[in-house]
Write a structure and sequence with these properties.
heterodimer, A: alpha+beta, 5 helices, extended, B: alpha+beta, 7 helices
Chain lengths: 153, 210
């Protein structure tokens, strides 16, 4: 009886911890996946330059709370007028199927903006330099909502 | 969108009509005021294609879901466009004169039998205009330019009706309603022999080759 009494609460505690860990891990995995990956890639053929940076969009969840409130407020006030339009744009783009928003070609220069999955892809080519930017729409929406919330009352 | 209209031809009066119609179309497409239009516009795509002539001419394609455009327009708050409406008191004298000329043009076309071209003067430039089905067609041919403009009559009427109502603004809801009701099809096409501009609605997001 004594042993069972001792083990029971310990088992419950361990099981609770494990469950909490699994839930937290599952939530974080879901968040990372749903926020997608931000990617920037720049290539210059003439200089043999190739730079690629990737970062989970969910990092914004961790970074934004660390940004000083004054800086957030200042940034929020700067985008105050455009924020509702951009946020609506993001929301509608997330609902829309994949498509090419803008395509401009002139001589050997090309600019394309695509909506692919939950991402906005920007492609710029000028013959020598190639830039690719992938921006997860959900991440952009989250950042804008935080900036708007921090903006002037 | 002004960047999409070739600067030189846009100064021409007929192209100003096309540009005005295009602004109405694009701004109207941006309106979110009409639920019925929104419902039917949910699956429509607004396309803009600009092709500059010449070997170095640029090629521009813009595609916007009508639903996206409808959602955004009410949020725009500028001097000339606010709350989904274009304020007429912000139009300059030239633009106001354009509206008067478009009204005269519409009246001239309405009085003529369908398919019969009437000669009209737009800003000192002579053009031929006619009704063809539900569209207003304009032609200008001179030594070095060839302009063709096709605009839905309903669209012209919606713009003029709003202006005539005297509210000092064009309610773009009427325009979007007209567009959505018409479904897929050309809205404005301009071909001046060198550059081409085409604005149309389609049920698919891909640009067709034309």
């Amino acid at each position: 009886m004594q042993l069972r009494d001792l083990r029971k609460p310990r088992h419950i505690a361990i099981a609770s911890l494990l469950l909490a860990f699994v839930i937290a891990w599952g939530w974080w995995t879901y968040t990372v996946v749903s926020f997608g990956m931000m990617t920037v890639r720049v290539r210059e053929a003439s200089r043999d330059f190739d730079l690629s940076i990737s970062c989970p969009g969910a990092v914004a969840l961790l970074v934004l709370p660390l940004v000083p409130a004054d800086a957030l407020r200042e940034a929020g006030s700067e985008i105050e007028r455009a924020a509702p339009i951009v946020r609506t744009l993001m929301a509608e783009l997330r609902r829309a199927p994949d498509f090419t928003l803008v395509s401009v070609e002139e001589c050997d220069e090309r600019v394309n903006v695509h909506k692919r999955g939950g991402n906005l892809l920007v492609e710029v080519d000028d013959g020598d330099t190639s830039v690719r930017v992938k921006l997860p729409l959900r991440t952009a929406d989250y950042v804008l909502s935080r900036l708007a919330a921090a903006g002037p009352a | 969108m002004a960047l999409l209209i070739p600067p030189a031809p846009a100064r021409r009066p007929l192209l100003r009509l096309a540009a005005l119609a295009a602004v109405g179309v694009l701004a109207g497409a941006l309106s979110g005021a009409v639920a019925a239009a929104a419902a039917s516009g949910r699956d429509l795509w607004l396309h803009v294609a600009v092709d500059e002539g010449g070997p170095d001419g640029s090629r521009v394609r813009v595609t916007v879901p009508l639903a996206l455009a409808q959602a955004i327009l009410p949020l725009i708050d500028e001097d000339e466009i606010s709350g989904g409406k274009i304020r007429l008191d912000c139009l300059d004298e030239g633009e106001a004169n354009d509206l008067r000329e478009i009204r005269a043009l519409r009246a001239a076309v309405a009085a003529a039998p369908e398919g019969e071209f009437v000669r009209v003067t737009l800003d000192d430039e002579t053009a031929l205009a006619t009704r063809s089905g539900a569209n207003l067609l304009l032609r200008v041919d001179d030594e070095d330019t060839r302009v063709r403009v096709r605009v839905p009559l309903d669209l012209v009427d919606a713009i003029l009706a709003a202006e005539a109502a005297g509210h000092g603004e064009i309610d773009l809801a009427a325009t979007i309603k007209t567009l959505a009701a018409q479904g897929p099809g050309d809205i404005v096409t301009v071909d001046d022999g060198h550059d081409q501009v085409r604005i149309w609605l389609d049920a698919k997001p891909e640009h067709d080759q034309r």
